[in-house]
Amino acid sequence: MIRSMYTAATGMEAQQLYMDTISNNLANVNTTGFKRQKIEFQDLMYQMLREPGVRNFEGSMASSGIDVGMGVKTGATQRIFETGSMNQTTNNMDLAIEGEGLFQIVMPDGSIAYTRDGSLKRSADGTVVTSAGFPLADQITIPPDASEFLVASDGMVTVMLPGDNGSTEIGQIDLAKFVNPAGLKAIGGNLFVETEASGIPIVATPGTENLGTIRAGFLEASNVQIVEEMVNMISAQRAFEIVSKSIQASEDMLQIANNLKR
Question: How many angstroms separate the CA atoms of 114 and 100, rounded?
Fold first, then answer.
């Protein structure tokens, strides 16, 4: 009965973490480029009371053993990199990736981070930066007198300059992809960083190497499905309640045992 309490406690802890994951998904339902997380559970080790296949004193072999599980643990929280819906903004500095790929961002320490959030801005010196002020790794700088900032589907950046009849190319935005994007580490601010699990980035022009293309004037919405998360929330709540009943039942059984009289 004491064992059942500890086993049930692992279940309550697991369902609480499940609820935490659901809450984070719902909290970021309007976060640009957010990728929802899915939690995965694994059973814990088993206490073997009788090995399967052992023979009794009569020589016959038991077809199955006797074991008791010790509960549940969280195996992983996997990030789902499905493309979210595209929301039109009519701002040419808002970029969305239609397909696979990530924008490359230079962090203050010089390292490279990755994001699906294409909410770009123009800094005081003309550098194209994110909402947090981090520049693109592609080093795009807009001339002071430029107008009509345009990004083609292949990442080519052009502007109109005074006195020019046509558009002028000022840079190229490349995209990065990973063999295992679920292995990327989220650091907040809609940013991810490379890990050993994700592998090294493959950087190429949009539309090549199975990378997606860029759509200017659009932003990618979160891929959180509200109805699905609400169903998961109800499931987690009911599972938490039934596991807590196991602890209550175990406590009642202990109380009965303690009250036995000779």
Answer: 13
Decide: pTM greater than 0.70.
yes
**Same domain flag for 57 and 175:** no
Average pLDDT of every residue of the chain: 91
Name which of 220, 196, 177, 219 is nearest 35 in CA terms.
220
Full domain range(s) for residue 90: 86-220
User: What integer pLDDT is reported at residue 42 of this predicted model?
Assistant: 93
Q: Is the pLDDT of residue 124 over 70?
A: yes
Same-domain pairing of 103 and 14: no
Crossing angle of helices 226-258 and 2-27, in 10° steps, is 160
Tokens of 234: 């109800």
pLDDT band at 113 (very low <50, low <70, confident <90, very high): very high
> Do 26 and 95 belong together in one domain?
no
